[in-house]
Structures are given as structure tokens and as C-alpha cells.
Amino acid sequence: MDDAIRAAARSFETGKRRRFLSTQRIIFLVVAAAAPLAAMVGNLPMALGRGLGAATPVGFLFAGLTLMCFAVGYAAISRRVVSTGAFYTYVAKGLGKPVGVAAAYTAAFAYVIYTVGMAAFLGYFTSLALGGMGLHASWLLLGVIGIGLVGVLGYRSIDLSAKVLGVLMAAEIAILLVFDVAVLLAKGWHAFPLEAFDPHALLGPGVGVGMMISFTSFIGFESAALYGEEAQEPTRSIPIATYVSVVLIAIFYLVSAWLTVGAVGAAEASQRARAEGGAFMMNLTDQYAGAGMMAAMGLLVCTSVLASYLALHNAAARYLFALAREKLLPPVLGRFHPTRYAPSNASFAVSLITLTCVVGFGLTRLDPYLTMIPAVIGLGTLGIILIQAMAGAAIVAYLWRRRAAGRWWVMAASLVGAVGLIIAAWLVEQNFSLMAASPLPWTAWLPSFYLATLACGIVFAAWMRRNRAKDYAVLAESHLRAESHREINKVTFDGRYCIVGAGPCGLLASRAFTLAGVPYDQFERHNDVGGIWDIDNPGTSMYESAHFISSKYTSNFFGAPMPESYPDYPDHRQLLDYIREFARRFGLRDKVTFGVEVVRATPLGTGAEDGWQVDLSNGQTRTYR
Fold first, then answer.
1. How many degrees, rounded to 5, is the angle at CA 383 between CA 280 and CA 65?
2. Given 375, 402, 453, 484, which residue has the most CB atoms within 10 angstroms?
3. What's the CA gap between 531 and 502, in Å, rounded?
4. Contact 395, 414 (CB under 8 A)
């Protein structure tokens, strides 16, 4: 089925092709958000010094396996539900709209505040790196430059961001591979000490901190679904990108952490990491790969932070876009750019918020690393993991209601992943003061902010249901796909069905019935397809100056994008041509009986359990299921 749809879409599309995201570029966006190099330089010393010590690789292994279990359910629901709202949509589908709205505001705040923290961190760390080379610049100035660069990239098509992130990600992974190879050549197989997998370490006092750091190092892996509506093949790309990203990140962290323990020795790993702190990885690179590689690593940490900042900026913009489209935020944020097909207004809003916060803090002249950066990034991290845990529970609930034979392993894996993420959220909340590492007295109270966002979201949803029922009814709508062609063919259809009319909805029904093998008859009183969009159709409300009120990018038939030559809001004649081309490409027109009107449809039996009696304008009476 998917092959047929894609083939039809390719033959239908004319003019310059819109650039959709490939699976490879989505992987770049996801892995870049996790910032592997920055995680190893910033998080690994803390995990070794305060967490599991030499057994830190066990923490990364456990986190990776847990997230792989989560990814099983995540992939299953992303094949079915395609939406820029991602986790918000999943929570609404699984746990209900009130909880979904609460998750929406929590996710939007978490991603935006994390983005603010990454912008400040980019300016601060770049200032340190340049200072080490004798070049001195204000962290605030560098941060503002970074905000400007990311703002330009975010405002433009996501395709450009993906290309930039691909280059930056390749560079940061390359430098860590150089370090890994240098340690392996110097130590041989002793670079992989078995003490790193001592199960007794999981019973030690640092297990909570170690697991917290392990899970937080994967932040960003969940962002694949945010690009569902911009992906070339969302039902295929999103699951693959999620699986590949989690596996790549987990292997990368596991091997690098293991080799790092081997480089210093299992007995000394914890003590040395605690003593050297943020310089730990830099010193090891100098020791094993030379001063040149150490300097290169310092610069590439800056680009790693930039890559993560850019990826998280894009994620935050898409959350604001999704919420605005649902009328949970001002509608102006929910508009696509007319030519770049990007949520440019939302991206600009994220840039403006980031600039305001960073400049505002910079004017206080407080040390950003001792105050703002850890508190803000810590708050964003807690929010994102909280949303992951909510999504994990929602996915289990969603799959349970739609359970199918032979899929027990999907449910089991999803349950394991959900439990693991709930534990991770609890660990982060319990150790928030350590993660935030800020002396500000109010830092310890920051997690309570999420109680407020969740409560406000539920209350607003209740208000919306009473006062804006129409908007509430369409919350968390998404493109829903059938699970697979095989599952559709398993259904036995008893009797024949009747489709009334050959307008857009009638044609969608006939394509779905045709692909699923459902027997049907279709009647159209006019002499061609098109419904109300045909101005020559008797009784239509169409008029000469009428245009489509929805963007062509968000309202086209699935698998059949409107031509690039069309304006963003096509006129009625363009819509009619598009509808008729859709019918021709899928062979739907030949199955319609034209010139025959359905005069009356009468239900047979209570609740129409015996079908429908259909009276036609040609004098015939038929019975349909």
C-alpha cells in the first residue's frame, strides 16, 4: 500500500520538489540534540566522580536498554500517529486530552528553557575556549552571536539545519573516535577493564546519581517524532531514526566511557574525575592524543554545544508551532513559512525569548556558570524527562486499547521502557540540586514549577471543553495511518457498502476502501468528481473569488502533495484540478456511477444492524451494509 501511494505521489507532483527530511537527516537532528561530545566532556566526569565510578558504563548500558524498550512502543505509535506535536499528541491519545494539554505546556516550557540554557552555555564555553588560545571575548557577546546564527538557521528550512548538524556531528564524533583509538593503541585490551561491569556497583551509594546522569545524557533522542510532518516517509523514517539514534548514542557512550575508565584505571577513575572535574576529558586527550587534539577537542565541544542548541531550538519551535495550531498559544505562531515550509514564526519567537533571557541575565553581571546555566539546563532536563515518562505511560495505555494478537512483546517492551523512564524522572527530581549545582537559594524549588504547569494545563483544558467546545474537540488531531497492509487484509467484510458523492471525502473513502479490498458502490449526481469545488456542480456554494482557507502543505491528500507551482492557499479551480488528478492517479473515477443521486437512505433494524435501504434517482432500490 505504501509503495503504491508513494509511486502515485511521485507521478503526481510537478514543478520543483519540496525538500522533505530523509531518515538520515532526522538521525543527524536527533543525535546532534544529545550532543555526544559535550555529554562526554561535561557529564562523564560527574558520573565517574559522584555516581557509579568505574561502573559508569553499566549506567549507560542500562539507560540505553531502557530507552530501546521505550523506542519499541514509540516506534509503534509513531507509525500510527504522525504529528508535529509528538509527545503532547501521544499523551493526549493515551491518557486523555486534559493530561495532554498539561503535557503540552510542560513540554513547550521545558524545551524553550533548555534552549535558553544551551544558548548561554554556548557563549560561556566558547569564551573559555577562545581564552585558552589568548583570545578574550565576553560570553554574552558570543552568546548573542550564537543566538543570531541559530535564529537564522531555525527560521529557514529544516533541511539546511540538518546539513549543518550533519557536519558538526561528524566532527565531534571523529575527535572522540581519535581519543578512543589512541587509548586502545596505548593500552591494548587492558583498555576494556572488566571491573567496569561489576554488578556490585549498582548497590553502592552513587547509583541514583549515576543513573540520573546516564539518562540525562540521552536528552534529545525523543525529538524524532517532532519532524513527522516534515519527513519524507514519516511512518518509516521516524521509527528507524529513533532506533538508530538510541543505538548509536548508547554504543558511543558505552564504549567511550569504558575506554575512559581503562585509560585511567578502574581504581583511580572516580578519584581523578572528582579532582579534575570539567578538565578531566581534556587532560586525558592531551595525555593520549597530544596537545593538538586537546585543543581541537576544546573547539569541537563548542560546536557540539552549538549543534545541540540548534537541534533543541528546532524542537522547541515545533512544540510552539503545534500548540499554536491547536489554539493553545497565539495562532500567529502556528503558521508555516509560505516558501520554506518551516514554522518560522515559532522559531523567531524562540529566538526572541532566548535573546531576552540571556541578555537580561547578562546584565546582572553574575557568573553564568555558577548561577544561570546549571539551574536553567537542569530545569529543562527535568521537564523533558518528565514528558518522556508521561509519554511512556501514554504509549502503554494507547497500545493496550489497540492490542493485537502477536504483539505482546511490543506491549512488554513499552511497559519496561515506561517504568524505566518514570524511575529516571524520580531520580532527576530527587537529585535536582546536584544537577543544577547552583548556590541560588531558590534553585531547590524550581521542580515545583512543573506542578504548576501540569495543574494549569488540566484546568485550562476543562475551561476549554466548556467554553470552546469546538476547539477542544479537535485537540491532538493527527494523521492516522493503518497499522499495515497485512492487517487490513485480515479483515473480512460482510456485504457491500455505499459511498455517497465523489467530492474530496468521497474520494478519500473510495481510495481507502479500494486499498483495503472493501466492496462498494459510489454514486455522484453530477457528471464528474470534485464535489463543492466544482463551480459547475448544481447546488454548490462555490464562487469565482473563492480560495482554500488552509495551507496546501497541511491539507493535501496523504501521499499526494499539491504541486509546488500552486500558491500556499490555492483557488477553487486549482483545487478542482488537484482533486481530479488525485482521482485519476488512483483509478477512482472509473468506479463512480455519475448522474445518479442518492435520494434517500433508510436504516434497517434498530441501529441499522440490518443495513441500509438506499433509493436512487434512477428508480432503483438497493440494500447496503
1. 65
2. 375
3. 6
4. yes
Who's near 506: CB < 8 A, 6+ residues apart?
499, 500, 522, 524, 529, 531
- Three-state secondary structure call for residue 150: helix
Q: Give the Cα separation of 70 and 556 in Å (integer).
A: 32
> Bridge partners of 531?
none
Q: How far apart are CA 152 and CA 147, in angstroms?
A: 9
Q: Which residues pair with 521 in a beta bridge?
A: 498
What pLDDT was estimated at residue 605? 84
Q: DSSP code of 233? A: S
Looking at residue 156, the DSSP 8-state letter turns out to be: S
Helix (H, G, I), strand (E, B), or coil: what is residue 501? coil
**Among 179, 126, 183, which Cα is nearest to 301's?**
126
Q: Name the E strands within 77-194.
A: 81-82
With 60 as the cut, is the pLDDT of residue 378 above it? yes
What is the C-alpha separation between 410 and 395, in angstroms, rounded?
Answer: 11
The share of the chain scoring above pLDDT 70, in percent, equals 83
pLDDT band at 38 (very low <50, low <70, confident <90, very high): confident
Query: Which residues, in sequence order, are bridge partners of residue 292?
Result: none
* pLDDT tens digit sequence for 397-431: 888 877 654 477 888 888 998 898 898 888 888 87
Residue 451: Cβ within 10 Å count: 10
Taken in order of first residue, the domains within the chain and their CATH numbers are 2-13+27-469 (1.20.1740.10), 491-624 (3.50.50.60)
The grid coordinates listed for 195 are 571491573
> Which grid coordinates belong to 167?
557536519
Strands lying side by side in the sheet with 520-524: 497-500, 520-524, 592-594
Question: How many Å apart are CA 77 and CA 93, to the nearest integer?
Answer: 10
Radius of gyration of the chain (CA): 27
Residue whose C-alpha cell reads 540540586 in the numeric block? 433
Contact 467, 485 (CB under 8 A): no
Can you tell me the distance from the alpha carbon of 91 to that of 73, in angstroms, rounded to the nearest whole number? 13
